[in-house]
Design brief:
By secondary structure, this protein is α/β, with parallel strands linked by helices. The chain has 14 helices and 15 strands. Strands 12-11-10-9-8-7-6-5-13 form a 9-stranded parallel beta sheet, sandwiched between helices. It has a 6-stranded mixed beta sheet with strand order 3-2-1-4-14-15, covered by helices on one side.
Length: 339
C-alpha cells in the first residue's frame, strides 16, 4: 500500500512531498517524490490519558470541585460508575472509542475503574474498534494482573507500595496522578518510581529536578485541568526537563478529541507546534511501549490522512501548524491502521 501527499516525517515532522510505503502493516519506506495529492500524512494520535468509563455522564457535575467530581471513593464519577449497569457502561464506552477512532486516535492509555469487572467491560466495548489500548487497572493487584499495568489515583489517596511492587514484578506499566490539586503528593508519587506521572499542574522546581533526574515522563491534560479549576500545567517547564505527552482525561469533562487538546495546548502554552504534535503522537506511544506515533521505517503503519485542500486547511503555509492549531475531524480523509 502506498500513501501519497505531504509527509510529516520523523521526530521533527519535516514536511516532504512524497509517499509512505506500507508492507504487512509496517512502514517499509518513506520516499521523496512529487505528490499527486494535497493530502497531509501524519502519524495517528496517541491519547496518553483517558477515563472512558465516564462516558455515561458527559457534562455532569457543573460547578463541583475537583475532589467532588473525581476523588475516590465517593466522588461524583465513582458514584455514577457504581450505579451504572454493565450494558449501559459498555455501550457508552464503545461510543467514545468510536468517536476517538473517527477523530484520528490510533492508541490510548486508559485508567480503568471498576477492578477486574471494569477491565472486562472496557474490553467488551473496544471489540471491533481499531484503537490499540493500553489498559491500566485500578483498585487492586488483581486488576493490574488482568490488565497491562496499574493506574493509581494519587499518592495522597493511598500508599500504593504493594501495588507498585506487584506491578514491577509483573513487568508492567505503572502510572500515577500527581500534582493535580496541589504539590503535596508529587514527592510521594516520585518515591514510588513510576513509569509516568499524570497532570503535574503544581510542579515546583524541586519536583522538576526530580523528574529530570529520574527521567520520568509526564502526561498533561490541560483542558481537563482548566475545567476542574486545577489550573494549567507548566508545559514549557516540563518539556525542558522530561518527555511530555498529551491526554484528554475524563470523558465526563471533555470530548476525547486530540485535535481540541492540541489546539488548546498550542495556544495557551509556550510551545511549538512540532512539540505539541510530538506530545500527541510519538511521546505517548513511547510511554505506552507502542511502536506507532511516528512516520519512520519499521514503525507500525497507524496513519492519519488529512485533506490539505479542505475549506479549512487550503492555503495553510505550515502543514505542522495547520495540523496542530487548525485541523479537525472534518478534515480527515482516512484513518489507517495495520490490517
Amino acid at each position: 500500500m502506498i500513501v501519497e501527499g505531504t509527509i510529516l516525517r520523523g521526530r521533527s515532522f519535516e514536511p516532504i512531498e512524497g509517499r509512505v510505503v506500507v508492507e504487512d502493516g509496517t512502514i517499509a519506506a518513506i520516499e521523496e517524490s512529487p505528490a499527486r495529492t494535497d493530502d497531509i500524512v501524519l502519524p495517528a494520535f496517541v491519547n496518553a490519558h483517558t477515563h472512558v468509563g465516564d462516558s455515561i455522564a458527559k457534562e455532569a457535575g457543573e460547578g463541583q470541585s475537583l475532589a467532588e467530581l473525581v476523588a475516590p471513593p465517593d466522588g461524583l464519577k465513582h458514584r455514577l460508575l457504581a450505579g451504572a449497569d454493565r450494558e449501559e457502561l459498555v455501550a457508552a464506552m464503545e461510543r467514545s472509542l468510536r468517536f476517538m477512532q473517527a477523530g484520528g486516535t490510533a492508541a490510548c492509555i486508559e485508567f480503568r475503574e471498576g477492578g477486574v469487572e471494569g477491565i472486562e467491560a472496557f474490553e467488551a466495548a473496544s471489540e471491533g474498534i481499531d484503537i490499540e489500548t493500553v489498559v491500566l487497572g485500578r483498585e487492586s493487584v488483581a486488576a493490574m494482573e488482568r490488565a497491562d499495568g496499574f493506574g493509581a489515583s494519587g499518592a495522597a489517596d493511598d500508599e500504593f507500595g504493594r501495588e507498585r511492587r506487584a506491578t514491577a514484578e509483573a513487568g508492567k506499566l505503572f502510572g500515577i496522578h500527581a500534582g493535580e490539586a496541589g504539590p503535596g503528593d508529587i514527592n510521594l508519587a516520585l518515591d514510588l518510581d513510576p513509569d509516568f506521572l499524570v497532570h503535574m499542574v503544581h510542579a515546583e522546581e524541586l519536583h522538576l529536578a526530580r523528574v529530570a533526574d529520574s527521567d520520568t515522563p509526564v502526561v498533561v491534560c490541560p483542558r481537563s485541568n482548566l475545567t476542574t479549576g486545577a489550573g494549567l500545567p507548566p508545559v514549557r517547564e516540563l518539556l525542558d526537563h522530561t518527555t511530555v505527552a498529551l491526554g484528554t482525561d475524563n470523558v465526563m469533562l471533555n470530548s476525547p478529541s486530540m485535535f481540541r487538546e492540541m489546539e488548546f495546548a498550542a495556544k495557551l502554552a509556550d510551545v511549538s507546534a512540532r512539540e505539541v504534535l510530538a506530545m500527541a503522537t510519538v511521546n505517548g506511544a513511547e510511554i505506552a511501549g507502542l511502536n506507532c506515533g511516528l512516520l519512520a521505517e519499521g514503525r507500525d503503519a497507524r496513519l492519519l490522512v488529512l485533506d490539505g485542500d479542505s475549506d479549512n486547511l487550503a492555503g495553510a503555509q505550515s502543514p505542522v501548524r495547520a495540523v496542530v492549531r487548525r485541523a479537525g475531524i472534518h478534515d480527515i480523509s482516512e484513518v489507517m491502521v495495520p490490517s
